[in-house]
Amino acid sequence: MAAPRLSVVAELLKPVTWFPPMWAFACGAVASGQTLGERSTLLLLGLVLTGPLVCASSQAVNDWFDRHVDAINEPQRPIPSGRMPGRWGLYIAWLWTLLSAVWAWSLGPWGFSATLLALVLAWAYSAPPLRLKLNGWWGNAACALSYEGLAWITGAAVMLGGTLPAPASLVLALLYSAGAHGIMTLNDFKSVVGDRKMGIRSLPVQLGETRAAITACGFMLVSQALVVAYLWSLGAGSHALGVAALMGAQVPLMARFVKQPTQQALRLSAFGVPLFVAGMMVSAWALRYLSELAP
């Protein structure tokens, strides 16, 4: 059977999805307090790891095991459309997973461990027997932890020479992972019809669209409010106010979203999520600021 065209492979790996984990990795790198210019090679290696390798692996895995759902929701995708023939989608998922693990080996024990956990979650999210995505609570948690928390931790660990990041960095990574649970729910509104038919219990399917929208916004807002309080307690008051301002700017978008979840989910993703992730970087710079003040 002929191999798929490179353009189809690139479409399967979805470069547009690589930004969130790469951004989270960069936030972790900044939060480490290390001089980034002196570690530019490690920074580049880590960005390639989190985006074109680990995230791309997760996309390939998901598209292979979701091919029957995609045949209903998005039949133009590479696998259901037949442009990715035979089992090539699965072969690419295996290959990219292996490449990710090999690449991460050079980035120290904590960076390697975080990468392996992210890869395990990627397969557990999509593949039987766990297939966490069948339940929106567990599936979105796995994605959020991989895309935000583990990527942040990897960035900090790599910049620190492979050692465990500081507790404050770990706390922020986990808080933003919790908030990202809501972001992952935004993606579920476009596929409600197919999810119902295929037995995928996303939050819009389980709770109804309005309650799922409220829940998604709750995850995003509560996590950011906790970040604000935590930064304030650490003595980074100006950074806390910056995160609070970014959070406040999301509220009008969320209000529209709750009134019209299906129609406004894409708008909140396009304009509200960038404000959320901007707060991540503000929080990372807060830790860097505090590290520079430390004796």
Structure, explained:
The chain is mostly helical. Helices cover 77% and strands 0% of the residues. Helix 2 (19-31) runs antiparallel to helix 3, helix 2 packs parallel to helix 13 (261-293) and helix 5 (88-104) runs antiparallel to helix 6. The longest helix has 33 residues, at 261-293. The chain is globular and about 60 Å long.
Describe, in short, the structure shown.
The protein has helices spanning 6-13, 19-31, 40-65, 67-73, 88-104, 109-126, 136-159, 167-186, 192-198, 203-207, 209-234, 237-259, 261-293. It is mainly α.
Order of helices and strands: HHHHHHHHHHHHH
* Whole-angstrom Rg: 19 Å
**Which stretches are poorly predicted, pLDDT < 50 over at least 5 residues?**
none
How many strands in all?
A: 0
Number of helices: 13
Layout of helices and strands:
Layout: H1 6-13, H2 19-31, H3 40-65, H4 67-73, H5 88-104, H6 109-126, H7 136-159, H8 167-186, H9 192-198, H10 203-207, H11 209-234, H12 237-259, H13 261-293
Helix pairs in contact: 2-3, 2-7, 2-13, 3-5, 3-6, 3-7, 4-9, 5-6, 6-7, 7-8, 8-11, 8-13, 11-12, 11-13, 12-13
